[in-house]
Amino acid sequence: MQSIKKGFIILVGLIMVFTLTACGGSEDASSSSGGNDSSGIKEMTIKISHVVAENTPKHKGAMAMAKYIEKNSDGKIKVQVYPNGQLFDDKTEVKNLRANNVQFIIPDMSKMVGMNPAFNIPSLPFIFSSNEEAYAFWDGETGQEVLKSLESEKIIGLKMWPNGPKQITNTVRPIKTPEDLDGLKIRVQGGQVLANLFETLGAGPLQLPFGELYTALEQGTVDGQVNTFSNISTKKLGDVQKYITINWGAARVDYALLTNEKFWNGLNDETKELIQAGIDHGTKQARSLAEQLNQEGFKKIKERGNMEVYELSDEERKVFQETLQPVYDKFEEQIGADVIKAATEATAE
Ligand code: SIN
């Protein structure tokens, strides 16, 4: 009797083990131990985190990527997209990417200069005159080398996603000449180049996370800031700013889509191929919508009507360009003359 009971318990145990193994269960990508040795799309949940609002190129790209991956994995892979810094903010996202608590982040490159000073490129004055020139650089050999330069951080740079040229807003006066920036406190995203650009114009740059920007403007911690139309409009910065100067565009907001090595190298070939196709799809979407969303943002800013719009003429813009030329010499060594040359020579296809 005793041995029948024992045999029964062993049998039940074996059935349970078999059932659990066969069903698998969805795995959070953060706890995945990797799957290079098994083929087939693996069940998992992937997280994408970013700091901006929904009606922006970055969010639209992330959503397109998520939908593509979910659909083409027949729902085996779930992708959760967290906008507005809901999951991680500027200060915590890189650390959490490295720890695989999130599988993709898409920071403004000027916030990544601590990992490689070449990420200052979008902040170099007037470096690209269109999104297409920026793509030509980041998709080219030198841009790809910069994106792939993060191995020591256990991070992999996958693609450049655009937002676009920065416009200046502030509460003190309309900005028409470099002198108009004299003495203003300006919030900057990050990086030595952007800080120096404003110092060259006589302004005081202050680096703050995007999530703290609205309050900093509201409380007067800073007088102004520089950003794209889509970011200014979706965060309603016009409610706490009086003036906007457009056609400035001395620096850009561009992003790097990043993943971490633990997650990426743990994917089997089939899963990686599918996710890569999702990334390509999201990239296409972000790139094709960037210009349109910025124009829509500008339209909304004008309709809301609470900022006085000043459009720099091409001659006025040229004065900024000449004033800011010394920034190039100052950072040539740090960024690399070859990198600056490749960026300067990048031409739209
Ligand atoms: C972003 O577009 O990711 C944020 C830019 C900023 O910090 O101003």
Task: Tell me what the structure shows.
There is one protein chain. The protein is an alpha/beta fold and 349 residues long. It has a single domain (27-341), classed as Bacterial extracellular solute-binding protein, family 7 (D-Maltodextrin-Binding Protein, domain 2, 3-Layer(aba) Sandwich). It is built from 13 helices and 12 strands. The chain has helices at 2-23, 57-72, 93-98, 131-139, 141-147, 192-200, 213-218, 229-234, 261-265, 269-304, 314-324, 326-335, 337-345; strands at 27-28, 44-49, 77-82, 104-105, 155-165, 167-170, 185-188, 204-207, 224-227, 243-246, 252-260, 308-311. The strands form 3 sheets. It has a 6-stranded mixed β-sheet. The chain starts with a helix and ends with a helix. The site of succinic acid has 9 residues, from loops.
Question: How do you describe this structure in short?
Answer:
The protein has a single domain (27-341), classed as D-Maltodextrin-Binding Protein, domain 2 (3-Layer(aba) Sandwich), CATH 3.40.190.
